[in-house]
Amino acid sequence: MKDKNNDVDRTCLHWIVHILNFMVIVALAADAIVRFTYFGAESPPSDPFFYILTIYLIPFAGLFLVAEMQW
User: Following DSSP, what letter does each residue of the chain receive, concatenated?
Assistant: First the structure.
């Protein structure tokens, strides 16, 4: 026999996790955009890892979005 309260809790948790996932996707995209603004600064970062990570963030955020939307 199913417990109706358990189904409601799962549904609520499901939506909370979806909202948190979308917030993380937005944060990753915003971080990548902010990091791109440093490319044209007067003294751009000399660390190559900074540029690799910045370029890596865009496809990673896109991958998260595609996985979350289940495309």
Answer: ---HHHHHHHHHHHHHHHHHHHHHHHHHHHHHHHHHHGGGSSS----HHHHHHHHHHHHHHHHHHHHHHT-
